[in-house]
Amino acid sequence: MFFELIGTIVAGAVAALLVWALNRTLKGRLPKWLIPAAAGAAMLAATISSEYSWYGRTVATMPAGLAVAQTIEETALYRPWTHARPFVSRFVAVDRISTRTHPDQPGLRLVDLVFYGRWTRTAKVPMLFDCAGNLRADVVDGVAFGDGGAVLNAQWFALDATDPLLRTACAEN
Asked: Where are the bilayer-spanning segments (predicted)?
C-alpha cells in the first residue's frame, strides 16, 4: 500500500513537471490551472491502473499449487469507473498441494483455502468438502476425525453442485 501511494505521488509530480516544462517552452501560453489538473489526472490514472492490475499481479506471484476458485468483483459509488467495469477486490484460491484425503473416505477432501483481499492480510483456512454429497464443513474446534477417516462433530452446509469452491477443491490434481 505504501509503494502504491508513493507511485501515485510520483505520477502526479512527473505529470506536473512535464506540463510545467511544456508551458515554459511555449513561454507561458498554457493556462495556469493545467499543471495541477495534469497532476490530479495522472494520480487518478495511476490509482485506477493499480486497482485493475492488482488481481493479475497477485495471481502471477502466487505459489505453485494454488488454483483460483472464486473472484469477487466490486463497484463503488465513489469510484464511478467501476460501474462501467468492476474490478476484482477479493478472491479465494485452493491449495491443491496440501489437499488431504483418507483411503477409506475417497469423497472427502480437507483443503486449505487461501483468502486474498486488496488492502487486507492473506488468510489460510482449512475446509472440509464432501465431493459426493456437495457439502462443506468448517474445520473448527470440536471437529475430530475418527476411525477410518470419519469426520465427527462437523456442521455440514449444503452447496450447489456448480459451486466454484466445491468444483476446484474436488477436481483431480
From this structure: 6-22, 34-55
Q: pLDDT, tens digit, for every residue of 61-79?
A: 999 999 999 999 999 999 9
Strand partners, 73: 88
Grid coordinates in use for 26? 511555449
**What cell was used for 167?**
468444483
User: Helices (DSSP H) in 26-127: which residue ranges?
Assistant: 34-60, 81-84
Helices (H) and strands (E) in the chain, counts: 4, 8
Q: How does pLDDT run across 46-55, given as a tens digit for each residue?
A: 999 999 999 9
Domain 66-170 listed as CATH 2.40.128: yes
Global pTM value: 0.86
Output phi, psi for 143, to 5 deg: -75, 130
Angle, helices 2-25/34-60, rounded to nearest 10 degrees: 140
Residue 90 · residue 118 · CB < 8 Å: yes
Domain boundaries, the chain: 2-60, 66-170
Burial class (CB in 10 A: 0-12, 13-18, 19+), 114: buried
CA-based Rg of the chain, rounded to a whole angstrom?
24
